[in-house]
């Protein structure tokens, strides 16, 4: 409920920043995020810090999106079309 999400286009990628003011010692669980991506992005590379995973884009409500985990206050998540 306290999370702030900022999304920006960064060239051919999407950058997502998630922050919250809560005590990190208590609230240290990753959050699940969903971001709309281009229809041609069938696979997406999700990078936050040194961690990179690959996610499969899904379709719903006439849009393509990717669902992934993000650690708040741990830097920007970069979404890019995977090869």
Description of the molecule:
The strands form two sheets. The protein has a five-stranded antiparallel sheet with strand order 1-2-8-4-5, with no helix packed on it. Strands 3-7-6 form a three-stranded antiparallel sheet, with no helix packed on it. The protein has one domain (4-81): Immunoglobulin-like. The chain has no helices and eight strands. It is 0% helix and 59% strand. The N and C termini lie far apart (35 Å). The protein is mainly β.
CATH class: Mainly Beta
* Spatial arrangement of strands, main beta sheet: 1-2-8-4-5
The total count of helices amounts to 0
Secondary-structure class:
mainly beta
Tell me the number of strands: 8
CATH 2nd-level architecture: Sandwich
> How are helices and strands ordered from N to C?
EEEEEEEE
How many distinct domains? 1
Which outline best applies? globular
Main sheet?
A: 5 strands, antiparallel
Residue fraction in strands: over 45%
Specify the helix fraction band. under 10%
Stretches with pLDDT under 50, minimum 5 residues: none
Query: Average pLDDT value?
Result: 94
End-to-end distance, in Å?
Answer: 35 Å
Concise description?
With 83 residues, the protein is mostly beta strands.
Keywords:
five-stranded antiparallel sheet, 83 residues, Immunoglobulin-like, three-stranded antiparallel sheet, mainly beta, globular
Which SSEs are present, and which pair or pack?
Elements: E1 4-10, E2 13-19, E3 31-37, E4 43-48, E5 51-56, E6 58-60, E7 63-70, E8 77-81
Antiparallel strand pairs: 1-2, 2-8, 3-7, 4-5, 4-8, 6-7
